[in-house]
Write a structure and sequence with these properties.
Elements (H helix, E strand, L loop, with lengths): L2 H10 L6 H10 L2 H19 L2 E4 L1 E6 L25 H13 L4 E6 L7 H14 L4 E5 L5 H10 L3 E3 L7 H7 L6 H14 L2 E8 L6 H14 L3 E6 L16 H14 L9 H6 L3 H7 L4 E2 L6 H4 L15 H14 L3 E3 L7
Parallel strand pairs: 1-8, 1-9, 2-3, 3-4, 4-5, 5-6, 6-7
Helix pairs in contact: 1-3, 2-9, 3-10, 5-6, 6-8
The chain binds 5'-deoxyadenosine (5AD) and FE2/S2 (inorganic) cluster.
5'-deoxyadenosine (5AD) binds next to loops.
Length: about 350
């Protein structure tokens, strides 16, 4: 048995590799080694979650953003972004549509929009949870105070997604202006966990300046935080950002990372992201076959979808939610998995 296969077996027993071993596995696994890695990831995922793929209805409710992350198409300085903000009625209509389509988790995602004060977000959370008590509600609205996070939790929010973006300080400052820090980001994640949320962190694969050693740090941070969810997808350039001319992240590397994360954290909820589906026509299926177990179709109204453009060529911006659910169901069926309509809680 080759050394590499033994290393994958070690991962499959939940043990982290040494830093050089992990860097090399991520950088240059052969096709056979990848096949073995993905098979192990599927085995581990099926032992916990069977063939179920959970769906989350993503509602992109505002693209106003106070932040200026260099990679993001809705950053404050992106002059060509057409800004929009959904109000409570619009959002409730998205939920109603989603509920009818079988969604039992709604994800409210938006830029860091000051119009949505802590009080307004709390009121919105309460309204959704009151109307749909059988649904889980996930927030993904960036950095707020611990008091705000507590208030949203008390209002009924169940989960919170906040990608850490990179676990290396210097790399964090390659991706963000100095007003945004990794320290604050991590603090938010620990506070969310302490309050009792199911928490998701995550990062982009192949973001500008990223080195293999940064990815190893990302994996180490995941092992430390023990999140319930991890969102990863390739970096994809957006034309109206400082990173417009940078290369996009790689498919193989993203799939390897999904598989490694599944092995290190067998119970984690791991989406096959839209960005993965954007860089490869079968990216999401490949993600599921590498250990992912969540998909997040878009529930936003059709007329705003093209405006929530974090990166270029984003898929599904012209489709109805119903079309995406059907499309995903067929795609997931075709690879022998099953799209499931329930809250899809962490096991
Ligand atoms: N390419 C890929 N992912 C991106 N995100 C933001 N901009 C891009 C991009 N250009 C991701 C970030 C953020 C999440 C909502 O979307 O990781 O946390
Ligand atoms: Fe949106 Fe396929 S998932 S069209």
């Amino acid at each position: 048995m080759s050394n590499r296969i033994e290393q994958i077996d070690q991962l499959a027993r939940g043990r982290m590799l040494s830093e050089p071993e992990m860097e090399q596995l991520l950088a240059d696994a052969t096709a056979e080694e990848d096949a073995y890695l993905f098979a192990q990831a599927r085995r581990v995922r099926e032992a916990v979650y069977g063939k179920a793929v959970y769906m989350r209805g993503l509602i992109e409710f505002t693209n106003y953003c106070a932040n200026d992350c260099y990679y993001c198409g809705i950053r404050r300085s992106a002059a060509t972004a057409q800004r929009y903000r959904l109000r409570e009625d619009d959002i409730m209509a998205c939920c109603e549509n989603g509920y009818k389509l079988g969604f039992r988790t709604f994800v409210l995602q938006g830029g860091e929009d000051a119009w949505y004060t802590d009080a307004r977000v709390s009121a919105l959370v309460e309204k959704i949870k009151h109307t749909y008590p059988d649904c889980a509600l996930t927030l993904s609205i960036g950095e707020r105070t611990k008091e705000a996070y507590q208030a949203f939790f008390d209002a009924g929010a169940d989960r919170y997604l906040l990608r850490h973006e990179t676990a290396d300080e210097q790399h964090y400052q390659v991706l963000h202006p100095l007003s945004q820090t990794l320290e604050r980001r991590k603090q938010c994640l620990w506070e969310l966990k302490e309050i009792g949320y199911q928490v998701g962190c995550g990062f982009m694969v192949g973001s500008p300046g990223q080195e293999m050693r940064h990815l190893v740090k990302d994996l180490q941070f995941i092992c430390e935080l023990q999140p319930h969810m991890v969102g990863i997808g390739p970096f994809v350039p957006h034309h109206d950002t400082p990173f417009a001319k940078e290369a996009q992240g790689g498919l193989e590397l993203t799939l390897r990372l999904l598989a490694v994360i599944r092995l290190l954290q067998p119970h984690v909820l791991l989406p096959a992201t839209t960005a993965l589906g954007t860089i490869d026509p079968n990216g999401r299926e490949k993600g599921i076959l590498a250990g992912a177990n969540v998909v997040m179709p878009n529930l936003s109204p059709q007329d705003v979808r093209k405006k929530y453009l974090l990166y270029d060529n984003k898929i599904c911006t012209g489709d109805e939610a119903a079309e995406c659910v059907n499309c995903l169901k067929n795609r997931i069926d075709s690879i022998g998995y099953e799209l499931v309509c329930d809250r899809g809680d962490y096991k």
